[in-house]
Amino acid sequence: MEKMARVTTALGGNTITGRTMFCHLDAPANAISVCRDAAQVVVAGRNIFKIYSIDEDQFVEKLNLRVGRKPSLNFSCADVVWHQMDENLLATAATNGVVVTWNLGKPSRNKQDQLFTEHKRTVNKVCFHPTEVYMLLSGSQDGYMKCFDLRKKDSVSTFSGQSESVRDVQFSIRDYFTFAATFENGNVQLWDIRRPDRYERMFTAHNGPVFCCDWHLEDRGWLATGGRDKMVKVWDMNTNRAKEIYCVQTIASVARVKWRPECKHHIATCSMMVDHNIYVWDVRRPFIPSAMFEEHKDVTTGIVWRHLHDPYFLLSGSKDSTLYQHIFKDASQPIDRANPEGLCYSLFGDLAFAAKESLISSDSNRKPYIGDRRHPIFFKRKLDPTEQFEYISSSSALSVFETDLESGSMDWFVRTAKQYALAGRPLAELCDHNAKVAKELDRDQVAQTWTMLRIIYSSPGTVPSANLNHSLGKGSTSLPLMNSFNLKDIPPGIGNESRLERSKGESRSENILMDSSSTLINNDENEETEGSDVPADYLLGDVEGDEDELYMMDHENPHAEEQEYILPQEAFPLRHEIVDNPSALDHLQEKADSPHVSGNEAETVSLTPVESFSLISISHSLYENRLPTDFFNPIVRDMLLFYAEQGDVQMAVSVLIVLGDRIRKEIDEQTQEHWYTSYIDLLQRFQLWNISNEVIKLSTCRAINCLNQASTTLHINCSNCKRPMSNKGWICDRCRQCASMCAVCHHVVKGLFVWCQGCSHGGHLQHIMKWLETSSHCPAGCGHLCEYT
After folding, report:
1. Which UniProt keywords apply (predicted)?
2. What would you report as the CA-atom Rg of the chain, rounded to the nearest whole angstrom?
């Protein structure tokens, strides 16, 4: 064995010395207990029952209590305890339900003293009274606890926990008549040994069986419990109701808990399965153990501190058939291997950064963090500066980088969530409305995205049939749509910026051909185009470069020879004949032929309103064709992924809902669910409950649709007889009266019902609101001063 530290402790004239050591047992141990002078330890199990003396360098077997040719089940021990007042007195809990006491002072080989056979099932725990020599308590699988007087042959009291089994019983160290019992159903009961008929107090401590408990050695009101829910909880029993003051989350079911002597906040634990280590926790720092013993190779079944006033020696037994003495100085310190750095963003954009104190202590500009300035929800419990964590060599310092209140404002998120339209209108109207909302909030990129989605996914029956290239230029102050301009609105000077293209080899001059039965959208009315029967292709791109290059204007010779203005039949169908603004058309005809027109392209007209820097070009190919409806889906999918990666999950979810099946198949179900969950969580953080529910209802993800279907039952009582109402109708089955009567109009409320939680009277929402405008007393006449939030 590697060299270990040697520790010497002086205890009132007695000296405890030793090192980390172990010995092999003949069989797995179920429990261990140490004698009063800390010189001997008893090990009990199904096939072992021995006493070892604890020397300075080794364990020495002193006595084997399993004697006889045919050892009975009385020697098969589930628990063992050594009396702290009488060093010759032991008690064991046998697996056959027998409680056995042992007197080491007997001269014979068989030290068995008394047998109590009143339990019908396995006895899980035995416990001596800390000051009464002859008082013994037991807890059994049969659900009963029995108190024995060793001077009598039978039990003196029987306590029924009204539960399946008792897992642990412990006498209080400070309260003479009190003991605690833990049960399989998660409850903890406190009993007075003078009153066996009923417990003094009961509370639910854990979610599942409570396997162990231990009273604090110094504070009379602290009780520690451990259970199958992998938690160790510390309860303050000094109040009228048990109050949980500390909670430690472990990684496996907790089998044993033992408070560490001379250390108020330290507690040792071991697990029932999976985890073989023994941990010592500081309950004030429950996230990482203060010390850890890793010697055992199988589950640890019993732990005990060697002396009531010595915090440095811990004894343990295990299913690996070993008995260990652990020295605290040899324990590993998990905190030394923990990462002292951490990084996290708050809801309002503040950045919290934790790092080693040694790295930050040199920064003289650091100021103490007083907590969140808007919502004091962080750092609720401030540690007492006098409380120092013992045996902890590293700590972290917290730095918080706060964002400006204005720049970090989330008002845009709330306003967008409230104003967005996600359903109930045609797609084009939804996109127009949402683009307008985004534009009002100065979110130009989002607004442009909604406009592009309208252009891409508007049906051919509502969009002019032509190949379009629609872009928003820099500095745009409006959002013109590709079919949202009128020839009447074109100023006279627009001809200088018009480019007309004709087919190669053609030099004909034709008049403008218009269809009086066709329709054109007026920009002010913002209506959809109807009557178009020519398929169209739409090409979208951003306007880049100089506008002179874009329009291909000749500034040196602006009045060059001009060709005749020709508009092909495939262009915009008009709602009426162009006779309202002849001056503009005449001017366009004068500018018809341009020296920069290419003759090898299809006929094209480009018209640009002056009030915005957007370009709308309409082209028609030599053959009729139309791109499939899902042609732009990959681009839209990439756009949604872009917004989600930027943190704007609101945009991703809103587009997902508006487009529906058009884009749903392009994004996998798991990604959609993640987006929906994130957005719903944000909405609920801002208490936008109605909008959150609307998003759930409109969700295209099956896993999200069912979120608002759980816990939808509202249980109500009759306002007359105060008894629960059935789910049928408005009449109470018991008193046969209408339960939801309006206190103002005295009619049955079949819709939204509002009531005072003080007197239970209420009625129609509008009636109650109108009543409270003139009076604060209850309209039912009960005299109560009703308050509504």
Report:
1. Autophagy, Lysosome, Membrane, Metal-binding, Repeat, Transferase, Ubl conjugation pathway, WD repeat, Zinc, Zinc-finger
2. 42
Helices and strands, number each (H, E), in the chain: 14, 39
**636/615 Cα distance (integer angstroms):** 22
Q: How far apart are CA 766 and CA 394, in angstroms?
A: 62
Distances (CA, A) of 774 to 280, 285, 686, 782: 65, 56, 33, 17
- Rounded Cα distance, 696 and 708, in Å: 7
Tokens of 244: 């949980």
User: Could you give phi then psi for residue 166, rounded to 5 degrees?
Assistant: -100, 125
Angle at 20 between CA 16 and CA 24, to 5 degrees: 110
Mean pLDDT on 432-442: 93
Confidence of residue 112 (pLDDT cuts 50, 70, 90): confident
* Sequence-separated (6 or more) residues with CB below 8 Å from residue 735: 718, 720, 721, 723
Contact call for residues 307 and 38 (beta carbons, < 8 A): yes
d(CA 530, CA 533): 9
Q: Give the CA distances from residue 658 to residues 136, 498, 652, 692, 695, in Å, rounded to whole numbers and listed in that order.
A: 73, 37, 10, 16, 11
Spatial contact of 308 and 37, defined as CB atoms under 8 Å apart = no
CA distance 345 to 55: 56
Nearest of 663, 754, 651, 739 to residue 700 by alpha carbon:
663
> Tokens standing for 281?
């926790």
Tokens of 546: 């100089």
Q: Could you read off the pLDDT of 311-346 as tens digits, one per residue?
A: 889 999 999 999 999 998 888 988 878 777 888 887
Structure tokens, 497: 């910026």
Handedness of CA 325, 328, 329, 334 (dihedral sign): positive
Question: What band does 780 get if pLDDT is binned at 50, 70 and 90?
Answer: confident
Average pLDDT, the chain: 75
pLDDT in tens, 458-495: 755 444 333 333 333 334 334 434 433 343 344 444 34
Between CA 191 and CA 197 the distance in angstroms is 9
Task: Encode 382-399 in three state secondary structure.
Answer: CCCCCCCCCCCCCCEEEE
Ramachandran angles phi, psi of 485, nearest 5°: -135, 160
Average pLDDT of the residues in 103-127: 89
Strand partners, 149: 135
**CA 179 to CA 401: how far, in whole Å?**
51
Which percentage of the chain shows pLDDT scores above 90? 31
Task: Report the alpha-carbon distance of residue 680 to residue 582 in Å, rounded.
Answer: 56
Cα–Cα–Cα angle for 56, 392, 344, rounded to 5 degrees: 150
Give the residue, 371 or 204, on which the prediction is more confident: 204
Instruction: Output 419-426 pairs: Cβ under 8 A, ≥24 positions apart.
Output: 420/654, 422/654, 422/657, 422/658, 422/694, 422/695, 422/698, 423/657, 423/658, 423/698, 426/462, 426/528
* Beta-bridge partners for 471: 615
Dist. CA 161–CA 198, nearest whole Å: 9
Nearest Cα to 262, choosing from 277, 246, 280, 239? 280
CA-based nearest residue to 578, from 591, 593, 570, 588: 588
Distances 370 to 264, 322, 361, 640 between C-alpha atoms, Å:
29, 51, 18, 39
Q: Is 238 exposed, middle or buried (0-12, 13-18, 19+ CB in 10 A)?
A: exposed
**pLDDT number for residue 544:** 42
pLDDT, one tens digit per residue, over 731-750 is 777 777 777 788 899 888 87
- In which band, very low, low, confident or very high, does the pLDDT at 269 lie, cut at 50, 70 and 90? very high
Question: Under 8 Å CB-to-CB from 623, ≥6 apart: which residues?
Answer: none
The Cα 166–Cα 210 span in angstroms is 9
H or E stretch including 214? strand 210-215
Beta carbons of 300 and 317 less than 8 angstroms apart: yes
Q: Which residues pair with 321 in a beta bridge?
A: none
Phi, psi (rounded to 5 degrees) for 66? -85, 95
